[in-house]
Amino acid sequence: MFDENRFLTITPLGGLGEIGMNCMEVSSQDGSILIDCGLMFPENYHLGIDVVIPRFDHIISKKDQLKAIILTHGHEDHIGALPWLVKYVNVPIYGSKFTLALVEHKLRERGLLDKVTLIPVKPGKTLKVAGLKIHFFPVCHSIIDGLALGIDSPVGKIIHTGDFKIDKDPLIENWGTDLKQFKRFAGKEGVRLLMSDSTNIEQEGWSINERKIVETFRSIFKEAKGRIIVTLFSSHIQRIQEVLDCAKEFGRKVGVSGRSLGVNIEIAKNLGYLNVSEGDLFIDLNEMPVLPDDKVVFIVTGSQGEPMSALSRIVRGGHKQLSVHQGDTVLLSSRMIPGNVEAVTRMVDNLYRLGAEVCYDKMHSIHASGHAYKEELKAMLLATRPKTFIPVHGEYRHLVKHSRLAVECGVTPERAIILEDGQPITLLPVGIRFEEPVAVDSILVDGKGVGDVGTSVLRDRQILGDEGMLIAVLVIDEVTWNILYGPAVFSRGFVFEEHFDYLLEDAKCLILDVFENDPHASVDKLQDKIRSSLRRFFKKILERDPIIVPVIATV
Amino acid sequence: MFDENRFLTITPLGGLGEIGMNCMEVSSQDGSILIDCGLMFPENYHLGIDVVIPRFDHIISKKDQLKAIILTHGHEDHIGALPWLVKYVNVPIYGSKFTLALVEHKLRERGLLDKVTLIPVKPGKTLKVAGLKIHFFPVCHSIIDGLALGIDSPVGKIIHTGDFKIDKDPLIENWGTDLKQFKRFAGKEGVRLLMSDSTNIEQEGWSINERKIVETFRSIFKEAKGRIIVTLFSSHIQRIQEVLDCAKEFGRKVGVSGRSLGVNIEIAKNLGYLNVSEGDLFIDLNEMPVLPDDKVVFIVTGSQGEPMSALSRIVRGGHKQLSVHQGDTVLLSSRMIPGNVEAVTRMVDNLYRLGAEVCYDKMHSIHASGHAYKEELKAMLLATRPKTFIPVHGEYRHLVKHSRLAVECGVTPERAIILEDGQPITLLPVGIRFEEPVAVDSILVDGKGVGDVGTSVLRDRQILGDEGMLIAVLVIDEVTWNILYGPAVFSRGFVFEEHFDYLLEDAKCLILDVFENDPHASVDKLQDKIRSSLRRFFKKILERDPIIVPVIATV
């Protein structure tokens, strides 16, 4: 039974050192699986970037070994990078029903559905793949149908929690995180390795229970005299159910606006995850019946103040069917993601200017995080009693603090291991080995361009965005070196030309000066001199440094 | 005594509807004063903008009436726009000693000091100007020497709180907010008008007392084995004093890095506001003695993750004298301003990677806001019992919520008045009159350019920053319409040209197509066609839409 060749290598490709882009390879001697394949939303300094995905070279270079992709749940930071991977690897994708329904929709939209086989899994069943036997444990999260993985591996029992919180009193039966199942899997000995969600390690205590949210909703619905508008993360089916339940209880019809919400509600309804009463709870915005204000609630997209979302359009008067007026109540039932706080608070202020009352996270209990707080993470550690602990899903400080918690819970300090993306570790029958790092990266996706925008392009965008640009064009006779055209000067994002055209006239004079001072210089030299002369000028006059593109054409 | 011509007009020029840029004109029949003259730091969408200032046209157009500028305290959002105003108006500037010292430094640096007369004021003394008698009340805030204004006006008593919190147990004697002085001024009748700081109306209860911060500092200093690095707002002299006191108590020398900190500490020392022990508490970083790690503390700039600040340079290894290593403790003793959260948390993660322990607001009580929480605002309302209430210093939702609090505290609803910038209101001997709005604006300052960057330039910057740009140059013979040069294509911030030059080659072909399909079109028409053809192409191929500048030169 004891085989020296047995091993399990864990290779984090994303999500260890950042929030998002979760992706991890787990390999045994019989092959490998990929746990999650997520994207990350760009940070503010990622100018113009749509999404960020992990670098897949490592996976693609040994794709014959890859046997399966296993998805823990359907959030974008766990499934969003699939479209970029499935072009290169053709293995079954396993996940819960709802998770796969979201994947199916995503891949169909991009014409990639024929590339993949989607195989549903569920708690109570196991999956044998790549020398591993995988158990699925239901976990509570801010999306339904989330799964944690219990893996019987050649070197012992492994748990990967995925994203989770522990809801001791779940609203939807059987979909709380059942710690007993983890405990049973861990057995008397405890697991060999626990990998656990670090997102909320900095939050003390226990996360808010969803029942508290329902309580707040009910009191708001009870008081509201006008229309109610709710915005939330569009995949948060449980929260949507709570709004529907309140609507029913307080006799309001429900309208929905925003594409992603429509899609997700449809999917959830079809799979039976949304309990919609008989009778017409929903109303069609295009054929909206005339209803008193206190008989409707609208669920709309736009919780992050996205400019094209339904709520943003409502606020600026650009929504075809909906508007906000005095006496309405708007509920932002979601977290403000740090990069979006400015946009969201601007929206909130404008809602107040329109006369609405706005309820948001900071002021009312109308949102609960889907990630375990510190005491919940402790409960997971105590239930599974790991020999080795690797914190996952978090920025570096989260990983540090989560590993400290593991030590407090009995993991020996040298077995509480902080890995970052690209650092593989191998569990041997006895002992652990760190492997050579593999190449990882954050690949920037801009439109259809994947990886064509890198650091140098971002740096140019930074300057262009902050300072604007100026083009200077001059056509000269290649024989006589006489000026045939120009200098012409064009600017964008620099100064308001209509009022400050004298600056551009000065720039033209400077270009002529350069040319006259050194009439026999080469084109390259002239271009360099024009650039430095104009930069000096604008720095002195305006303390600005736009990108300057001198173009000298010889004909 | 009763004079029908008496009046007092309040004209907010900034700070009512935004946080920052505080500036208000108060006029009687005998002239006007300006209360504060602040700037606002740009939001994320203000690309490349350095600061934002109020529009001063209203003040300048009637500058003969302006008798004084009164400053409540020395923060940038109250004094920062002075350099742009003092060029146009020449009236005395009144403020506390420390406030004026900061103004003096600022104006000297810009060569504007000879334009102004600075006159110190202090609690207990009054100032008669513009038909008003102004009393000064000391208030507690996150900068020392803050003042609220009590104004005996022709139409009754007015209070403008400036920025304040109520510290019932101030660390520095006599510089808590003494509500009794406000109460005494208000008298039996209460004041005619209260204008009060709305910044923290959304915070329930009382703000944290500075003694709590000292307590945390002491426990951190007690435990720390390595070096301690503290970053904080550089004008927060009281907090700096607390660090100095801890340094003394725990036998650490103090090094300072960062220009603004050095300046402010010097000013405070010279005015006697910093209690520095005899002996050498401070060490000079340029001649740093060799000291054990547990014998030093460094106060450095960079609490907002500013890239050129001392702390950012330390983190990326670019600081000449200082570095961070295993076992050091870094204290971010300040609030993370929402727009800076990404930058600050990136810095925190990198500090952890270097092995430091980092204490910040979210996790430890090492920062206290300088603005009154809801219960403190209530205490101010109850102490002054205003007939009319105008919330100041806040975004729109803050003003709404503060006015509701005033109503709860006994102000009649129609006398709790929400004004925004540019909406003047006149208090008459009996009654109130709304005046015609005056022109206000947020003037964007970019380098030395004031107001030359407006909406259209910002829009270009947005596109340039998100999508980059492409220039297409073509020189044609004005007689034969033959192409003499080009098409040449240059891009910036668009794609990484080295790897994606084939896209630019395709673009050149498209330009030739346009030219050949319509060889006799005018230059303008050709340019338009080239632009739309290239936009279509890049949208289709890349889903991107860079700024395209076609330049056709005829020679």
Largest interface, counted with CB-CB under 8 A? Answer: A-B, 69 and 69 residues
Structural class of chain A: alpha/beta
Q: Can you tell me the CATH class of the largest domain in chain A?
A: Alpha Beta
Strand neighbour order, sheet with most strands of chain A: 8-7-6-4-3-1-22-23
Low-confidence stretches of chain A: none
Number of domains of chain A: 3
Oligomeric form of this entry?
homodimer
User: Helix coverage percent of residues of chain A?
Assistant: 25-40%
**Total DSSP helices of chain A:** 15
What is the CA–CA distance across the termini of chain A? 82 Å
Binding site for Zn(2+) 2 (chains A, B): 78
Active site (chains A, B): 197 (proton donor), 371 (proton acceptor)
Enzyme class (chains A, B): hydrolase
InterPro entries (chains A, B): Metallo-B-lactamas, RibonucZ/Hydroxyglut_hydro, RMMBL, RNase_J, RNase_J_2, RNase_J_b_CASP, RNase_J_bac, RNase_J_C
Task: Outline the fold blueprint.
The structure is a homodimer of 555-residue chains.
Chain A: E1 8-14, E2 16-17, E3 23-28, E4 31-37, E5 51-54, H1 57-61, E6 66-70, H2 76-79, H3 82-85, E7 93-95, H4 97-109, E8 118-120, E9 126-129, E10 132-139, E11 146-153, E12 156-160, H5 179-186, E13 193-197, H6 210-223, E14 228-231, H7 237-249, E15 253-257, H8 259-270, E16 282-283, E17 296-300, H9 310-315, E18 329-332, H10 341-353, E19 357-360, H11 374-384, E20 388-392, E21 394-395, H12 396-408, E22 425-427, E23 432-434, E24 442-446, E25 449-450, H13 455-467, E26 469-476, E27 483-492, H14 497-517, H15 523-542, E28 547-554
Parallel strand pairs in A: 2-21, 4-6, 6-7, 7-8, 12-13, 13-20, 14-17, 14-18, 15-16, 15-17, 18-19, 26-28
Antiparallel strand pairs in A: 1-3, 1-22, 3-4, 5-24, 9-10, 10-11, 11-12, 22-23, 24-25, 26-27
